[in-house]
Amino acid sequence: MTDYFIAWWNVENLFSVEGDPNRIPWLADKLKAELKGWTAAVLAQKLAQLAKVIASMNDGRGPDLLGLCEVENKAVLEQLVMALKPHGRAYKVVHHDTSDQRGIDVAFVYDSAKFTTKSKEVFSHTILRRTGTRDLFQASFYTKPGKNRLVVIGNHWPSRSAGQYESEPYRMLAGETLSYWLQRIREVLKQQATDPEPAVLVMGDFNDEPFNRSMTEYALGQRTDRLVKSKRAESPYLLNLTWPLMGAGSATQVFEGEVTMLDQLLVNRGFFSDESPWRVKDSSTEIIRLPEMLEKNGAPRRFGRPSTKSSFDATGFSDHLPVACRIVEQS
Fold it and tell me: Which domains are seen in the chain, by residue range?
């Protein structure tokens, strides 16, 4: 029996340096003001801050698998991996450039001593809407040496910047897209007779809370496991592992004084079926919050922007806190 520490973190605008020659012209123009003063030294400090938190996870051993969002490209992810190298993990990156209008993507960092991936089982699922948005990002990870498959889907749903209820239909669409692909994964793998009930772990910054309609009615996230476990249920229900944390008034993000649980982990029926090697470790879901990550009011301490703005704080990290859980491979 082997347990794995799985985490998710919105690292808030992890961009490459200002003037990066590899940045496409339209994006360079769009980010011109935003990246003013984003030098190699400032980026190195941001990476060091992120690496400090990541390395502290899992009792100081670092995560076995980490989902990230708000990263610009694979190159900056490789720099993050290099910042983590002194901590003794052989991390590798799974990444795909998406159609987001600010150039920020979803990606995975994984311990290559514990997992392997297959390029043909990495997918980016487009959310069909009038204006571009971030794709859903899916990858299969196989354990070493058990070779059991774990499907992971990373999400960064449309923001609330236009207003929570005005923008809600976009997140409902994202939830429906997620549910569609969960259904397809189950159907395809059953046809291939590879996984009778594939284990799928869904993670992300959903920009909605566990009880919002996009999560409950469209992504089919549940507070209890009754429908998730049911063999009679044809819909791809998910158990929301982060819902119980809300009872303690916890949050992963604070905006204008409002605390929200936007970052979540969910699992499908593949974590409960008799045939599956996977289980979620009881009471293992947590929000990662080192004391230095928090402002006096409990809000996440942002790194912010390197400019004259007072929001810049070189001792900060991100405007979101990470969430994590432990999953168990039984065979």
Answer: 2-329 (3.60.10.10)
